[in-house]
Amino acid sequence: MRSTRARVLVSALFAVAALSACSQPSSTSPGLPGGPGGDAPVSATHPPADPSRAADRGMVTGTVSRADGSPVPGVGIGVQSVDNPAKPVPQLVVTTDAKGVFQWNLEPGRYEFHIRTGGTSITGQAAPQPATVTAGQTSTVNFTLT
């Protein structure tokens, strides 16, 4: 009986944590959790991140611009781990700000970044960009829409 109660309580705590993370707006992704530092995934296999481990992550920053160099705000940037096993990615998408800038705080590893313009009035394409994330360092990934 006690074991069942503990499991129910732990499940409820994870559900509350996941729901509260979803309701916090982001400064880089309006309506998405995370902001510039990103939130760690919350699930039974990926409990909430320990804030003291922030130094164990690396930053990826970049811009999205048009061929003429003008910034493109509101572009979604997606990422996936290309490591095996894959690293968890804390957010599905971050969005460029008014200056076309985005940033993402990720665990060290190899990733592929891609733009997402579907469902927006933004036109253009850009090839996916690889990046290697190293703890305590910043990598740059820039896109030019063609």
UniProtKB/TrEMBL annotation:
Signal peptide bounds: 1-23
UniProt entry tagged with the keyword Amino-acid biosynthesis: no
Renumbered residue ranges of the record's region Disordered: 23-86
GO molecular function annotations of the record: carbohydrate binding; carboxypeptidase activity
PROSITE patterns, alphabetized: PROKAR_LIPOPROTEIN (PS51257)
Pfam families, per database record: CarboxypepD_reg
Organism: Micromonospora pisi
UniProt keywords, alphabetically: Carboxypeptidase, Hydrolase, Protease, Signal
Taxonomic placement: Bacteria, Bacillati, Actinomycetota, Actinomycetes, Micromonosporales
Protein name: Carboxypeptidase family protein
